[in-house]
Design a protein that fits this description.
The structure is a single chain. The protein has 307 residues and is α+β, with helices and mostly antiparallel strands. The strands form 2 sheets. The chain has a 15-stranded mixed β-sheet that branches. A two-stranded antiparallel ribbon has the order 13-14. Helix 1 packs across helix 2 and helix 3 packs across helix 4. This is Formylmethanofuran--tetrahydromethanopterin formyltransferase.
């Protein structure tokens, strides 16, 4: 493995982010105004930060203008990721039923081309208590369910595709202020990349984890090697005296190329801040290649590729 490199005063470790296969779908939610589309998107993708405890990972991919949606109204594109197609279908039905059907003026459509379908409006139509009607447009079936503000329109199904979860960057900084600035810059750059979401709050996670725990019931626990308060207490630390805070950005994408593009965008944005901005080092989380088959080597994402 090559040695760490230094760019703009920041050390980039000779390591890789390890990611794993997931199942994913994209749905498009529209509403009478951008505000209500946003509210539906936020509710449907809430409590979806990690499959460790949430069942799925999800986020708002981007906001859509009326000329980008099936019904000519403002909308949002949402991405959902789970460890199996069955779990994804379960999460999708619950979240669309409780958070989008219920939200004023919304409609929901598939946002992907044909593939293995799972129910979108197929089962939610029964909320109409027999008053629901189907409509075929362009070879696709849509359900019109009467609700108190008019009707809820939902496409019959949405495709599930293979995807990649767990791309990541670890940003090691001088202090909390510098770590937040670097993480926020990285997330802002990643959000301009299509087909990805960063599922944690604001796209950033401070509780990075390692596999396993001293407590048998837990499958994951705090990544103690990166915890500043444990320097001098744990057997092995990754931190040097000039690092006071670490933030992680986790990326899920529809393909390995999408995750790599987002990691590269985030890496470029963080490195542009440089050591002058308080960023000291960039690393990535992996488990020695035992977690998943997708390995994103940081040096290959740098300008010009691996040195």
């Amino acid at each position: 493995m090559s040695e760490a490199v230094v760019l703009n005063g920041v050390v980039v470790d000779a390591t890789f982010a390890e990611a794993f296969p997931m199942k994913a779908t994209r749905i498009v939610v529209t509403a009478h105004t951008p505000h209500w589309a946003e509210q539906a998107g936020l509710a449907a993708t809430g409590f979806a930060t990690s499959v460790i405890g949430c069942g799925c990972e999800a986020g708002i991919e981007r906001r859509l203008s009326p000329d980008e949606t099936p019904d000519g109204r403002p909308g949002v594109a949402l991405l959902f990721f789970a460890m199996s197609g069955k779990e994804l279908a379960k999460q999708l039905e619950r979240r669309v039923g409780q958070c989008i059907l219920t939200c004023p003026t919304t409609a929901v459509y598939s946002g992907l081309a044909d593939d293995e379908p799972v129910a979108l409006g197929r089962n939610l139509r029964f909320f109409g208590d027999g008053w629901q009607i189907a409509k075929q447009i362009g070879g696709q079936r849509f359900w019109r369910v009467p609700v108190m503000d008019g009707e809820f329109v939902a496409q019959e199904s949405t495709p599930v595709v293979k995807a990649v979860g767990g791309g990541n960057l670890l940003l090691l900084a001088r202090d909390t202020d510098a770590a937040l600035v670097a993480a926020e810059a990285a997330v802002a750059a990643m959000r301009r990349v299509p087909n990805v979401v960063m599922p944690f709050p604001g796209g950033v996670v401070r509780s990075g984890s390692k596999v396993g725990s001293k407590y048998p019931a837990l499958s994951a626990s705090t990544n103690d090697a990166f915890c500043p308060s444990l320097v001098g207490l744990v057997a092995r630390t990754e931190l040097t005296p000039d690092v006071g805070c670490v933030m992680e950005v986790v990326i899920d994408g529809l393909s390995a190329a999408d995750v790599a593009a987002a990691m590269k965008a985030g890496l470029d944005a963080a490195l542009a801040l440089g050591a002058a901005g308080g960023l000291r080092r960039v690393s990535a989380g992996n488990y020695g290649g035992k977690l998943g088959p997708f390995h994103f080597h940081l040096h290959e994402l740098l300008p010009g590729g691996a040195p």
